[in-house]
Amino acid sequence: MALKTPVYMDHAATTPCDPRVVEAMLPFFTTTFGNPGSRNHSFGWDAEAGVDRARGQVASLLGADEKEIIFTSGATESNNLAIRGAAAMYEKKPAGQTGRGHIITSLIEHKAVLDPVKRLQKEGFDATFLEPGPDGLITADMVRHALRDDTILVSIMWANNEIGTINDIPPIGALCHEKGILFHTDATQWAGKMPVHVERDNVDLLSMSGHKIYGPKGVGALYVRRRKPRVRLTPLVDGGGQERGFRSGTLNVTGIVGLGKACEIAQAEMDHDAHRLLELRTRLEKGVTARLDSCQVNGHPTKRLPHIANISFGFVEGEGLMMAVKEIACSSGSACTSASLEPSYVLKALDLSDELAHSSLRLSLGKWTTAEQVDYAIEKIVAAVRKLREMSPLYDMHKEGIDLSKVEWGHH
Ligand code: PMP
Q1: Quick one: fold of 19-266?
Q2: Taking the domain 7-11+270-401, which CATH number applies?
Q3: Pocket test for ligand 1, best of 72, 110, 165 (most atoms within 8 A of CB)
Q4: Is residue 161 within 6 Å of ligand 1 at its C-beta?
Q5: Which of 76, 77, 218, 260 is 20 to 30 A from 236, comparing alpha carbons?
Q6: 193-234, pLDDT tens digit by residue?
Q7: Is 132 exposed, middle or buried (0-12, 13-18, 19+ CB in 10 A)?
């Protein structure tokens, strides 16, 4: 059978909805359409039952209690609620003053963590942005060195969305607990793919999203610990007092039911999927690097999500590379910000040059990716890189053994 193109290899950006998830959601659009806040009739009760079930499914995936799950519109909102909500609740000095408290995070967090922390800086909080090692990892020791007497919150992602590196979350959580500091983790790329147990892993606040785990877009959850310690948050959205006052607004029942079903499926299938994906990712990385020189797989060699491959290709121009592999739907090492093409700040934090960051591809595989698709991607990428290098005088010089870092270029 002919392969259908483009081949989707951007599952870290979003995943298709599992048909079993869609099936679970459908009745809640039409028949079970009630508002779970309606206390006086069965329409409300039935919708509430759907939400309760989903809450149980999410809690079960995380090893949490149902009362500890707050439904949100996605990981962006979960991160904002965790970070801004904790900062407002645990601040040391009133709004408007400086020295309101110190927050530790990392340089390679998603913008949905970086930007709320930066806004808090403007509002009088201090922040430390930890720099990862060249393998992309943030360690408990790095956090330990950054701790201050006035540190109120540590926020470190479980796994990075661009390079897939996995941080050692349990020891970071243990350190925070030992010091009595709240610990939040953005687990958007981790939860539902790899095992989580908030108790064992010492997590106080955890963000996750539906659309990264074969659930619908626009729904997510925040785990908020209720015991040892009982975490309090100032809400971002006030109103009807839903979600125990943490997040007002009529619940997105269909989305929540879908998220719950996605969590149930993930819990049952993640082991199998992770093994299969690791095999496919290895096939992809080996297939490319065995046939091309001057390329590198970014991130940690082993502490890396099984489905994300981030590969940089020397001596090719980034935009040309993206054009040449357009039958593969993947991400590049560039972020389009307004008018300019910025190299990825994550790759830059790993000390990659701007050129190498631009000529990087993030290929993220999913539940329905096949070996045939992987082999197709290998062929396309190898052919594209070879072709672009044929046009590169720098590559010729490199082949001739000239050390390009020592070449003095004329400036015009
Ligand atoms: N954090 C991480 C690590 C992510 O990968 C993403 C999605 N790219 C988000 C947060 C934002 O998630 P959402 O789309 O659910 O708001």
Answers
A1: Aspartate Aminotransferase; domain 2 (3.40.640)
A2: 3.90.1150.10
A3: 110
A4: yes
A5: 260
A6: 999 999 999 999 999 999 999 999 999 999 999 999 999 999
A7: buried
